[in-house]
Amino acid sequence: MPEFWVISAPGPQALEKLNAVTKPNNLSVNYKFHIPDLKVGTLDTLVGLTDDLAKLDTYVEGIIRKIVSYMEEVLEDQKEMLSENLHVNNGDVNQYLTRFQWDMAKYPARQPLPSIAEIINKQVQQIEADLKQKASAYNSLKTNLQNLERKQTGSLLLRSLGDLVKKEHFVLDSEYLTTLLVVVPNPLTKDWEKSYENITSMIVPRSSQKIFSDNEHTLYNVTLFKKVVEEFKTKAREKKFIVRDFTYSEEQLAAGKSHHAKLKMDKNRQLSVVFRWLKINFSECFVAYIHVKALRVFVESVLRYGLPVNFQAMLLQPLKSTKKLREVLNKLYHNLDSSLAAGAIDDIPGGLTSFGVEEYYPYVYFKINVDMCDDPNKKA
């Protein structure tokens, strides 16, 4: 299942008791979720943190989803490679979760809890800002390349003609003659071939050749005297023959091809840089995300179970019916909250919703989504 649960319960034997009730029916695989001895602070601080951490949790998950979404976008027609690039600390997501250890270097455990939350918040804000900058630069390069390629493959009325014509299609370096390129709708090609010599005077007989044809139009050349060009354009337009502005220049054609090649090279180079950044910062954000979950478990557990700190945090990977697993957990931990002893677990005690508590059970519970490609509105 694309989710894990992190819960906590008081007592040193909590994991053993959990395994005893979930293993017989193979309801979940359970792991110890290691949270260090964090500084508790005051009750007011803990109460204030519950709401702040809930917002931070949602924010960090949202940035992870943006990173994954953009990874999928830049992969283009290789989206199947997405999952194999979503690694955390050089391992897969499940491996990181089941072996979770608090990162003391990034998030010093002896710092006050609000300070740790602020470190995470600033880190993820910087990643978000960098993502916007890198995405903007790459998307601009990609758009320029797409626009250039669209000009090379679109309608003959708009596309670049340099890759369709050859030097021998033109009369060059003549004092009196010039060659025009004319786009003719396909239903009118026979009309063009019969009548082009008579559109104006001073057209070179049998000078028109069919150069290229697509589903809608055909491209022809025609040679005529320079002095009748404007008249020819006007009368040709009346017959729905469109003269394209084009001057044959080998230097400009070579420069255009060179520009296209450079854009492709720049895009591929930038793609490599951006994708590497996305992989690294998916890992960074996911690590931050799980540390936020750990902070939430710690704060909620202290508020629920009191001091001294004496609870065990545990990671559950549901295997079958989450409903059955939930029933087993409620039965195991029903004594932790007398208000829920009768089983009214769907009613959140008054006031807790303001602290970001969306689901309330006799034990501390938070869900961890590991499929960041799914519905972004799914609750965490």
Structural account:
The structure is a single chain. This protein is of the alpha+beta class and 380 residues long. Helices cover 46% and strands 15% of the residues. The chain has eight helices and ten strands. It has helices at 14-22, 43-75, 93-98, 113-153, 189-195, 229-238, 250-305, 322-333, and strands spanning 3-10, 28-32, 87-88, 91-92, 177-185, 209-213, 217-225, 242-244, 311-318, 364-369. The chain has a four-stranded antiparallel beta sheet with strand order 2-9-1-10, with helices on both faces. Strand 6 (209-213) and strand 7 (217-225) form a beta hairpin. Helix 1 (14-22) crosses helix 8 (322-333), helix 2 (43-75) packs parallel to helix 4 (113-153) and helix 4 packs antiparallel against helix 7. The longest helix is centred in the last third of the chain and has 56 residues, at 250-305. The two termini are 15 Å apart. The model is unreliable at 341-357 and 375-380 (pLDDT under 50).
Order of helices and strands: EHEHEEHHEHEEHEHEHE
Instruction: Give me the side-by-side strand order of the main sheet.
Output: 2-9-1-10
The biggest beta sheet reads: 4 strands, antiparallel
Measured by DSSP, the beta-strand proportion falls in 15-25%
Helicity, as a percent range: 40-55%
How many DSSP helices?
8
Report, as a whole number of angstroms, the end-to-end distance.
15 Å
DSSP, total strands: 10
Shape: rod-shaped
pLDDT averaged over residues: 89
Stretches with pLDDT under 50, minimum 5 residues: 341-357, 375-380
Radius of gyration computed on alpha carbons: 34 Å
Q: What is the SS-derived class?
A: alpha+beta
